[in-house]
Amino acid sequence: MAAAAALARLEQKQPRARGPTSQDSIRNQVRKELRAEATVSGSTEAPGTNVAPEPREEGSAHLAVPGVYFTCPLTGATLRKDQRDARIREAILSHFSTDPVAASIMKIHTFNKDRDKVKLGVDTIAKYLDNIHLHPEEEKYRKIKLQNKVFQERINCLEGTHEFFEAIGFQKALLPVPDQESPEEFYVLSVAALAQPQSLERHKEQLLHAEPVRATLARQRRVFRPSPMASQFDLPGDFFNLTADELRREQRLRAEAVERLSVLRTKAMREKEEQREMRRYTYTLLRVRFPDGCLLQGTFYARERVAALYGFVREALQSDWLPFELLASGGQKLSEDENLAFNECGLVPSALLTFSWDAAVLEDIRAAGTELDSSILKPELLAAIEKLS
């Protein structure tokens, strides 16, 4: 609409040129694309745009979801975004009382953010343990000098490494050093640990193949009754990388820019700008509408793949073995096999999709003289169905 208004004003202000100019060509191209896209969408909105809902403060009434939440994989606790790191740290530290080896490995991989340094340190520790495994009779391999340059640069700088050495059977000891008056501190492998080489090998493999402990995004699955408000999303500020004030300012500036420049932007230029806008979002709230009108809602990362949504929907179905399709607005079919992220499909920061059974399978079922159950979702989900308000 802004583009059309800008076109009208420009045509009134500018005298007709004798021949077509480059701006005339672009203007004509934009006009054609605007008309074509409006015809396809059946809407008078500016085509190709994905207008973000204005974020609301957490706790305000009628939010589509109260916020973005996560689940701690160690405790199962539900966490807010600002609680994730602190609660994960607490859970790992509390794990030392029950399994110090596993806790120290989690600490090494989770507390240290530089993944290259972690890999270098872990590989060095593995080399120490390999030398002990390959040369069990060699005493020199059972001692690690703490002031050694390699130890200091690669291992001492990482949180959790000292706890790991002590948990697998190393003990600190002051030992004499040849040609040196004062003793130095070493890690020395205990006799009991040396007698169990298979345990050292197992701990080494655990250390090498461990991953950082990360809170998982809580889907916050909800089921709603049929509602004319299915396509309306009031999102909390958690769904936006910008603060609420920054987003309002961004929307105002963008509206002003559209007023000035949309007449000079071709479809390719608009699509490129839209892709840049899509990268602003970290999360997306998706709803799937079923043939009976019921709605299934969940929270996803904007960069998750479409296959994650198919899996989420499949878990909610009574007949989870039957193939189905998901359609975005405008009838665009989302393929489970395509490796596309939600932000690449324009499904951020929210979207309503339509569920349908695979047409060929439906025909086969009807040809066999049977019908699908009218209730698509699992009974336990329907028992907790809500009204969308």
From TrEMBL:
UniProt cross-references to Gene3D superfamilies, sorted A to Z: 1.20.58.2190, Phosphatidylinositol 3-kinase Catalytic Subunit, Chain A, domain 1 (3.10.20.90)
One family name in Pfam for this protein: UBX
Residue stretches making up the UBX domain: 279-355
Stretches the record annotates as Disordered: 1-59
Top-rank taxon: Eukaryota
CDD domains reported for this sequence: PUB_UBXD1 (cd10460), UBX_UBXN6 (cd16119)
SMART domains on file: PUG (SM00580), UBX (SM00166)
PANTHER family listed in its UniProt record: UBX DOMAIN-CONTAINING PROTEIN 6 (PTHR23153:SF38), UBX-RELATED (PTHR23153)
Protein name (database record): UBX domain-containing protein 6 isoform X5
Organism: Equus przewalskii
Gene behind this protein: UBXN6
